[in-house]
Amino acid sequence: MIEERDEAVIAAQLGRAPRGLLGVAHRCPCGLPDVAETAPRLPDGSPFPTLYYLTCPRAAAAVSKLEATGLMRDMTARLADDELRVRYEAAHRDYLARREAAARAACVEPLPDGTQSAGGMPGRVKCLHALVAHELAAGNVNPFGREALDAAGAWWLAGPCVPEDTSAPEDMSAPEDMSAGEENRS
C-alpha cells in the first residue's frame, strides 16, 4: 500500500497522476521517491510492461543527457562481450521475475510470455531511464543501469525535486489521452 504523501510526490514529479502505482521501489538520498513500482496491468486491464519508473525529474534529466550522447548505441555494441551479455540477460530475467511477482501481489493477470521487459533487454539498450530505475530498485543487478547511474552523477545534491509540503491533488485520475502502452510511463 502506498502512502498518500508518496503518491502526491510522485504525481508532482510526473506532473500528472501515476497509473497503476503499487509503491515506492527506491528513495532518493533526499528521502523522496525516485523510482515507482507500477502494476503490470493498469486498472482497466491493459498491459503495462514497465515495472520500475524513474520519477525524479532531476534523475530523469541526468539520464536524458546520457542518452543524448549516444551511450545506448555504444552499450548495445558492447553486448558482443560474452560476460557482459550474460549479465544483461540475467538482469532481463530478474526484471521478468519481479514483474511476475508484482502481478501476483497486485492480484492481476501476469503479462504473457514473450512480453518485453524494459529498456531493450535482453538484446539491446533502448532506454537508460528504465535500466537505471531497475538498478535502483533491485540493486546490483543491471550492469548498464549501474553504469548509467554512476555516470549520471549526484542529481539529489540540489535538494528535493518537489516542495516538501506537496500534498495529494484532489483528482488523482489519469488524463484520458494517455496511451496505456506507452513505454516508461507509470
3D shape: globular
Assign the structural class, choosing from mainly alpha, mainly beta, alpha/beta, alpha+beta, or little secondary structure. mainly alpha
Number of separate structural domains:
1
> Helical content, roughly?
40-55%
**Main sheet makeup:** 3 strands, antiparallel
Spell the H/E element sequence: HEEEHHHHH
Mean pLDDT: 90
Give me the count of strands. 3
The tally of helices reads 6
Report the C-alpha radius of gyration, rounded: 16 Å
Topology:
Blueprint: H1 4-14, E1 21-27, E2 33-38, E3 52-54, H2 57-68, H3 71-77, H4 82-105, H5 128-138, H6 143-152
Antiparallel strand pairs: 1-2, 2-3
Helix pairs in contact: 2-6, 5-6
Describe the structure.
The protein has 186 residues and is mostly helical. The protein has one domain (4-154). Helices cover 40% and strands 9% of the residues. It has a three-stranded antiparallel β-sheet with strand order 1-2-3, sandwiched between helices. Strand 1 (21-27) and strand 2 (33-38) form a beta hairpin. It is globular. The protein starts with a helix and ends in a 34-residue tail after the last helix.
List keywords for this structure.
mainly alpha; 186 residues; globular; 40% helix
